[in-house]
Design brief:
This protein is of the alpha+beta class. It has four helices and eight strands. Strand 3 and strand 4 form a beta hairpin. About 30% of the residues are buried.
Length: about 180
């Protein structure tokens, strides 16, 4: 089974990103993830046994940690492959994230790469699926929409890949 661990954006920021991704698809046919608005904590990984140990680690972690703010400020890109909303983590939110990575390292089937480790580029994707032919239009469209949101790192959600889409497996809320 394939899983991914994310922080789902709620409220206005999540609605803005979800609508922007829909608009970019409708106008430019540039696709994005099938996940709701989010930043990635752990990139997709495969595991075919029950993920009980991961669930226990996340439950315990969320009982002792609390939510902290971050901001979405403007846009960035990874070459001409990905356009994203820039996540500006507060010092406290980054510290919670880093402690979470340390906890997740204790789960034997969780392994991190440079792209999803502590020093990742935090971002919320706008478009990422074969966008090179329309990259410039996506970039211009995104930058025409002001992006300034106050958010909270307040949830950790596990999604699993089922029937060609991501389905929520379990969500945990930080205190």
């Amino acid at each position: 089974m394939r899983y991914v661990i994310v922080c789902v954006l709620q409220n206005e920021a999540g609605a803005f990103n979800n609508q922007m991704r829909k608009d970019v698809w409708d106008k430019l046919k540039a696709r994005s993830s099938k996940l709701p608005a989010h930043f990635t904590i752990k990139a997709p990984f495969e595991y075919d046994e029950p993920i009980t140990e991961l669930e226990e680690v996340l439950e315990t972690f969320c009982q002792r940690e609390r939510a902290y703010p971050f901001k979405l400020e403007g846009y960035g890109h990874f070459g001409d492959r990905v356009v994203y909303m820039h996540v500006d983590m507060s010092k406290e939110a980054k510290e919670v994230h880093d402690r979470l990575i340390d906890e997740l390292r204790q789960v034997p089937y969780i392994h991190f790469s440079k792209q999803d480790d502590k020093d990742k580029t935090f971002h919320v994707t706008v478009a990422s699926k074969r966008i090179q032919p329309v990259y410039q239009e996506v970039w211009e469209y995104a930058n025409s929409k002001p992006c300034h949101f106050d958010c909270k790192f307040d949830d950790i959600s596990i999604y699993k890949w089922e029937d060609n889409t991501w389905v929520l497996h379990k969500a945990y809320n930080l205190a």
